[in-house]
Amino acid sequence: MELFGFNLEEILYWHWWVVAGVFFVLEVLSMSFFFLWLGASAVIVGFILLIAPEMSWQLQFIIWAGVSAADVLVWRLYKKKTAVTEIKSDEPHLNKRGDQYIDRTFTLEEPIVNGFGKVKVDDSIWKVECSSDLEAGSKVKVNAVEGTVLQVEAAE
Asked: Which of 57, 82, 107 is the endpoint of a domain?
């Protein structure tokens, strides 16, 4: 049988190693840890074919497919078992600047009109949203952050 002009009856061990090399190059380009296991399986089939050169091409592909599926399955189970579900940090709000302002009180830079205003926080101006209108200079407490808008309420 021929595939892409190549007679499958003439597959040698080194053909599998070339296929493995192609998969390894694809892995380097994709960084998915998927092609790595297909390449590793091709290396294994190449070694098996080196030991048993009379193996039919159908059996070679069955072994390659089976070992590839087993490799991918074992890898996914391993990753699922060893995955870190929650990373503890001593600075949980480090890259979430707005979250650092929750429960803090600030003075309005501009009045809140129609639910929106501005407040100066440290070295920047933040847009604020409030359910009631407030005068400039009023104290507001930050309850939440939605994107770049601080959700505030009047402070006591």
From this structure: 82
- The 10 Å CB-count burial string (b at 16+, else e) for 62-88 is ebbeebbeebbeeeeeeeeeeeeeeee
Judgement on whether residues 66 and 101 belong to the same structural domain of the protein: no
User: Cα(150)–Cα(143) distance, rounded to whole angstroms?
Assistant: 8
Question: Per the structure block, which two tokens stand in for 149?
Answer: 């808008």
Q: Do 71 and 11 sit in the same domain of this protein?
A: yes
Q: Using alpha carbons only, what angle is made at residue 41 by residues 4 and 84, rounded to the nearest 5 degrees?
A: 125
Q: How many domains does the chain have?
A: 2
User: Lowest-pLDDT range, 22-36, 55-69, 73-87, 123-137?
Assistant: 73-87
Q: With 0-12 CB in 10 A as exposed, 13-18 as middle and 19+ as buried, what is 42?
A: buried
Average of per-residue pLDDT across 20-46: 93
* Nearest alpha-carbon partner for 66 in 78, 76, 55, 74: 74
Q: What is the spatial distance between Cα 111 and Cα 72, in angstroms, rounded to a whole number?
A: 59
Q: 87-95: which pairs have CB atoms within 8 A and are 24 or more residues apart?
A: none
